[in-house]
Every structure is written in C-alpha cells, then in structure tokens.
Amino acid sequence: MSDELRARASLSRVVEPRDTAIAQLVATVGPLETLERIVRGHGGLQRFAPRVAALDVERDLAIASRVGARVVIPGDPEWPESLNELAIPPWCLWVRGDSLERLARRSVAVVGSRMATSYGESFAADLGASLASRGWTVVSGAAFGIDAAAHRGALAVDGPTVAVLASGIDRAYPAAHKQLIERVAQAGAVLSEVAPGSAPMKGRFLHRNRIIAAMTAGVVIVEAGLRSGSLNTARHAEELLRPIAAVPGPVTSMSSAGCHQAIRDERATLVTDAAEVIELVGVMGDDSLEPPRGPARPGDALGPADAAVFEALPVRGWMELDRIALVTTMAPLAVRAALARLEDDGLARCLEGRWRKPTPPRKAPPSCGE
Question: What does pLDDT average to in each consecutive run of 10 residues of the chain (370 residues)?
C-alpha cells in the first residue's frame, strides 16, 4: 500500500471535502507534504488539531477491509477520469463493489425529492430499470424517495447501479436502506469520499452531489420541489457542462415545481422515458432517437391533389366525379387522374362511375379460446 494512498486516506479523515486551502496545498506540494504540514499545525493549519489527535489511518483501513471496501485514489486504473474535471476532486474514494471506471464509463444520474409522490417513485423505478436494461449504470444517492426508487429499478433487472454516500462507507444512511445499499454494492458499487464512521452531515450531502454529477454523462431530475437538494446536483452538472434532463409532473404538483422551473429556464431538457434520456446523454449518432410519430393513417404520404380528393371521398355512400370536382374545386380531369392513382393504391373504390373510400376490414371475432 503506497504512502500516497495512506496520506489521501488520512486527508479524508482530517479534512472536509472541498476545503479550498487544502486543495491548493495538495496541488502545490502533493498529499504527503500536505498531511505533514497539517500534522505539524504550521501555517495556519492548527484548526485541524482535534482531528489530527484522533487520526488513526490504520484503523480506518482495517474497518474498510472488514466491510469489503478499498481506497481508490487519482491515478489508479479504476479512478473515473471525469472526477478530475471537478475544481476540487475527492482526496480519495472508499469503494465497495465493482470497478468504478467500468461502471462510470456509461452512466447517468437519476435524482429527485426525498418526499417523492407515488408518481415520482413509479417513474424513477421504471426509468432505472429501462436505463439499466440498456446497459447504462444508474447513479444516485441511496436516499429516500426518488434515489431509492431508481436504485431498485436497476436492481429489478439485475442491472448496474452506484450509490454515492454522504456518510462513511461502513455506515448505511439512511439506516432503513441498509439492505438496499448491500444489494447495490453487490450489483454495482457503493462509494464515499469521507473516512469510515463519518456522520452524514448536511454539508457532506451537498459535497457528494458533485461526485454524482461528475462521474456520469448527465443528470435526470425525476421530481423536485423548488428547494430540492437534487437541484444542487443539477447545478454541479451545469458547471461541468453535463446535460440535464427533467421529468414533467402534474402542473398542480409542488413536488415537480423545480423540474418545471428548470425546463422553463431552459436549464433542463424535458424527457419522458429512457430512450429520450439516452439520446440526451449518449453519443451523437449512436444513441439518436427517431422523432415520435402518431399511428400511421391511410393517405399520410399523398401529395396535395390526391390528399384533397381522398379527403372528399365518403366512407358510406358513393360520390360522382362531378360532385368530387365541386367539393375539391379541382378540374374534372385532375380529379379523374387523382382517383386513378388512389384506386391503384387501394385508397378508392369505383362502382358504376361513382366513388368512395374502401371499407375498412372488419376485425375477426374472438375465437372460443380467447
């Protein structure tokens, strides 16, 4: 185990994520020298003294080993390179499960309100299942509501999913999701940037949101109020130039007000299913989606003249050519030519000089066994 790994693991115990002063120091002198200066308390770093006194990196590594976790640092083969786009990347990651690099390669974040409605949870579960079944890793935060529904959707189809925790890797939060987090670790991965045993403080939730945004190709907000924490994840995604999608809800629902506002502000693209999400976050060309169309109807591909004559033909009864010319204001010769083309295409019937649309085929009655 390298000295740099131990130093970065120690930083995750002593220093909070996104500490600007320490980030500048790490960038300048490296993690080993940074930790040494923190331990000595030089240069205004005495503020870390209480945590330095309690530091025991070997204990933290032993706890991680007991729960099947490992430490991943920048430069490791499984470190997601996209995390380096952050202004302040994690000091390290404590990880349980599969390779992060492989999981993050084709991943999308699905986030939303903890106080989700049944509509939101149902959609998130369906979206998680659909994305996972198409080979995409579903990344979320294991919280109540939308997060848990997205994880469960992916798990339901034996798909990959990743949970990013605001607590230590050995500490399931919320506690009610201990079994869910175990299943996520088996199917994909669970990770945290803070040391084992760390409490899930409010600031750490906001910090972990940037990891969710950075390691994925884009963020989908399924349901969010105007002050939802999931909008914080969207802001990180916006800073990282990741696409943001939002799912519309009932216009009267405050649970979807944040989604609607993001769409109105043109900060998010409206999506309604997994295919639209993949088109937004995927590779242009490879993941493009055909524009949705309504059901095909007879006459859709007709030119203007033929369409006008077809529209004039009755479904019941019959119409003479002169009457069709009167209705369409077309010359009789032009009407006759259009009728001939329509008849060739099976879109018109003629009987004794009169015309009508063909009778739609009758649906066969169900058999006795149906």
Answer: 94 96 96 96 89 96 97 96 97 97 96 95 97 97 97 98 97 96 97 96 94 97 92 96 96 95 96 96 62 67 90 90 91 92 90 87 56
Strand order across the 93-97 sheet: 69-72, 93-97, 189-192, 161-164, 137-140, 107-111, 219-221, 244-246, 269-270
Integer angstrom CA distances of residue 342 from 6, 193, 310, 345:
79, 69, 7, 5
Amino acid at 5: L
Give residue 101's pLDDT: 95
- Under 8 Å between Cβ of 213 and 237: yes
Q: Go through the chain and tell me how many residues it has.
A: 370
- On the 0-12 / 13-18 / 19+ scale of CB atoms within 10 A, 286 is exposed
Tell the burial category of 315 from Cβ atoms under 10 Å away from its Cβ (0-12, 13-18, 19+): exposed
Domains in the chain and their CATH numbers? 1-55 (no CATH), 63-281 (3.40.50.450), 304-356 (1.10.10.10)
CA distance 280 to 242: 10
| Residue ranges in the chain assigned as alpha helix (H) | 3-14, 20-40, 49-53, 57-66, 100-104, 118-133, 146-156, 178-187, 202-214, 230-239, 257-264, 274-281, 304-312, 321-328, 332-344
Quote the CA–CA distance of 276 and 218 in Å, as a whole number: 12
